[in-house]
Amino acid sequence: MLKTFPKGGVHPSENKITAGTAIEVLPLPKQVIIPLSQHIGAPAKPVVAKGDKVKTGQVIASSQGFVSANIHSSVSGKVLKIDKAINSSGYKQVSVIINVEDDEWLDTIDRTGKLKTEIVLTGEEIVKKCAENGIVGMGGATFPTHIKLTVPPGKKCDVLIINGVECEPYLTSDHRIMIEKGREMLTGTRILMKALGVSKGMIGIESNKPDAIAHLNSIASGFEGITVHPLKVKYPQGGEKQLIKALTNREVPSGKLPVDVGAVVHNVGTAYAVYEAVQLNKPLIERVVTVTGKDIEKPGNMLVRIGTPLRSVVDAAGGVPENTGKIVNGGPMMGKAINSLDVPVTKGTSGVILFSVDESKRKATNPCIRCGKCVSVCPLGLEPYLLMTLTEKEFYDRVEKEKVMDCIECGSCSYICPADRPLLDYIRLGKSETGKRIRERKQK
Is 226:266 a contact under the CB 8 Å cutoff? Predict the structure, then answer.
């Protein structure tokens, strides 16, 4: 029997349209817009100025403080300006705008394409290399990787978990990395294990990816300590707490982190990026992005330079269909709608999905019928209907007491609600206000 997490979960239609489509390299755009905050934590500080010539891989903004990440140029050319530009959330954000002239890379980056499996750096050197190269979590959270590799004093990690679940419908970028870059990804896993000082690495993959499971199983024997684990298909299995429970049967308590139960979780894309950073000295300047939708002409998985406008990605897939009603950055469950394709690809951009007008229509909201379905599917055991009601009434002390900050915003509650209530929208609002109140208390 396949393992899974025991509490809650839903089964949305998978729509993995691009699962069998090989990664294609997207041509360089004429201009890139590179935001200085593509990670959780403090924005990076620019170290270039208008008119500067930059090379591909060059640092253009340095991290500020422990929770931050370096930003590198993904192209070579001239800095047009440093100015605020609209990001995928609709906010203006300080960005470095570069006009692309050619593709001259730093000489320090290994571009031979030769696989390097021997790990010569120490654990401390690996952490430093990840920080230098701006590596962050590629699963969407964009938490700086060097911080996750720094186990706090008094705590101990004994297992590394690699998230190959990719449970969001439509998205297939991780799937293709496991198929096409399996050896590099497994080497990256070994590098992460060395940095953490653990001898056990577990890769969790949902059983709807049999080709990825078979491929990694066939080569994993050459990578000591790494095992591949097929999992039952159930959303949101890719959540850290859910994946840890499924693979190790350890439960992360409310308010605690995975390392509190001896585990650290990294995404498949992160493991591959770590391989490139440590073995090839390559910064995080590009990533695989799924561009898909039921009506799009040429859906696929594309290797895209950071800062490339999403419009270039969609144009390469055949352009925007006439009947498009909504464009989502990320997956359909946790992603967010965008109102412009001129926003840039960032380190956290996993995919862009184009939905038709019919698919995009929100149904009329009806009164809650107290069916309890939202409670039954919540993987954290929360009461979404209650959190929405309390947020509507602005009872934020009670919202915090009901553990709104535990919500992982998976959207299972909104998906299952027969009354079509916007549960997640209100819970996000409740989390935002509660988080603000918690920060204000800590500053007093």
Answer: no
Rg (CA), the chain: 21
Terminal C-alpha separation, the chain: 52
Q: Which residue segments constitute the domains of the chain, with CATH numbers given?
A: 123-280 (3.40.50.11540), 373-443 (no CATH)
CB neighbour list of residue 221: distance below 8 Å, 6 or more residues apart: none
Whole-structure pTM value: 0.96
Phi, psi dihedrals of residue 160, rounded to the nearest 5°: -100, 130
Contact status, residue 96 vs residue 34, Cβ threshold 8 Å: yes
Query: Which amino acid belongs to residue 322?
Result: E
On whether the CB atoms of residues 308 and 32 are closer than 8 A, the answer is yes
Per the listing, tokens 């959207």 go with 411
CB-based contacts of 270: which residues, under 8 Å, 6+ apart?
Answer: 135, 136, 137, 138, 139, 145, 188
Question: Are 301 and 47 a contacting pair, CB within 8 Å?
Answer: no
What separation in angstroms does the CA of 394 have from each of 388, 398, 399, 436? 10, 9, 8, 14
**pLDDT tens, N- to C-terminus, the chain (444 residues):** 899 999 999 999 999 999 999 999 999 999 999 999 999 889 999 999 999 999 999 999 999 988 899 999 999 999 999 999 998 888 899 999 999 999 999 999 999 999 999 999 999 999 999 999 999 999 878 999 999 999 999 999 999 999 999 999 999 999 999 999 999 999 999 999 999 999 999 999 999 999 999 999 999 999 999 999 999 999 999 999 999 999 999 999 998 999 999 999 999 999 999 999 999 999 999 999 999 999 999 999 999 999 999 999 999 999 999 999 999 999 999 999 999 999 999 999 999 999 999 999 989 999 999 999 999 999 999 999 999 999 999 999 999 999 999 999 999 999 999 999 999 999 999 999 999 999 999 887
